[in-house]
Amino acid sequence: MESRGRPLGALEYVVAVADRAAPINFVMVADLRGPLDEAGLVGGLRAVQRRHPLLAMRIVSHRRRLAFDPGAGPIPLRIVDADRAAVSGICAAESTSRLPEETGPLLRATWVRHGGEASTVLLTFHHSIGDGTAGAYLLRDLLEALDGRVASDALPAAIEDHLPARTVGLRGVLAHLGFIGRIVRRLVGLRGLPGYRVAGAPRAPIAERAVHVTRRDLTAQETAALAQAARRHGTTVHGVLGAALLQAAFAVSDKRPVVGFGSPVDLRARLAPPVGDDVGLFITMVASLHRLDPMPDFWDLARDVRGQLQAMVANGDVFAAIPFQARGLARIAPWLGGGVAGALRFVRLMRAIWLDGIGVSNLGRLTIASRYGAVEVEAVGFCAAPTIFGDLVAFAATLDGRMCLHWVGVTPHVPPTTLDAIADDMLRRLETARGQ
């Protein structure tokens, strides 16, 4: 089925313009064991490009906006021979290496061969066409395609075409005003504006920023013990990850007392109609706010992370925040100029609107299989370049009970040694939490 293009939705457009200021790719990471070969991977990439038409698109100018246009070539596959220790560095480079929007495609693949039947496959997305959940589905489809055909499908609609009626028009404006009121009341109660900086670290313009990536894994036993501890203390694994990152990051910060904590939320099941397993951008971001000076008890903080997130979901803030703001930003962006200069002006506007902080992007338990024929998936993780949205993000995904964690720090704001120290400190806090 040949797909026509369409204009970018508001959120897709906002992300695409921001990407012109600095690449904000996200990368899926799959540790594999089993017989793979170049021809099979190339054929699999060709199949998933038919299944997910966004992978055959490029981005072109369209009436002062941007549009997806068909005609991109095949998804490129790069082959690298390196050990597993080199993969984090490859992830960092992939996340900040620009994808060719004018010619497409908006995805590329890297096959890192480790020797024998061990390898890692990286899928690097332009963030306007996907998110972590989409990446997991694409990985599944790629591995399934190694053994058989994947049917083609139609180009998915933008998230704005699936928003519930209560989130648009006057009702949407009122919902957004309610969201702003709740944020203001929270800030008044905390007696401070949120911010996060590593103590003594230099700042750099967007064009001079890079990222450092570090990875750690939890065994199935460690992950299960963490989930059990979270339940005992009335919170969630996401709440525990958030508390551990907030405390570990605050320990090396300049001690600004209030920190914003970002949590991406998958909207697929909440859209109308719900979105299935298409590749596309169907997430939002909400931010909880926490006073860390004085530092609260670990479990109180974990419950606060969970409680604020659940309240924002219940209040409809998952729609009243980013999806609503993206529509307004998309109307303004064309008037700020084109090219990198216009993108930088746009990013400055975004940063003035969105709260500063750190975050955890947690896919939770993935619903994909861990074996495809003779190929076993040993772990799945992901990471992204938050070069314009913040300085520090942890990314988590769990497959067959094993949690894969990536930490990404924007340099020089978070020096590599500091990021590694934050990761180690966070793991120590998680280890303590498991035993409580």
Question: Concise description?
Answer:
This protein is an alpha+beta fold and 436 residues long.
Key structural traits:
38% helix; 436 residues; 2 domains; six-stranded mixed β-sheet; globular; alpha+beta
Secondary-structure blueprint of this entry?
Blueprint: E1 6-7, H1 10-21, E2 26-33, H2 38-51, E3 57-62, E4 65-70, E5 77-81, H3 87-96, E6 107-115, E7 118-125, H4 132-145, H5 169-190, E8 210-218, H6 220-232, H7 237-251, E9 258-266, E10 283-291, H8 298-315, H9 317-320, H10 322-332, H11 339-353, E11 357-365, E12 371-372, E13 375-384, E14 392-399, E15 402-411, H12 416-434
Parallel strand pairs: 5-6, 9-11, 11-14
Antiparallel strand pairs: 1-4, 2-7, 2-13, 3-4, 6-7, 8-15, 9-10, 12-13, 14-15
Helix pairs in contact: 1-10, 1-11, 2-4, 6-12, 7-8, 7-12
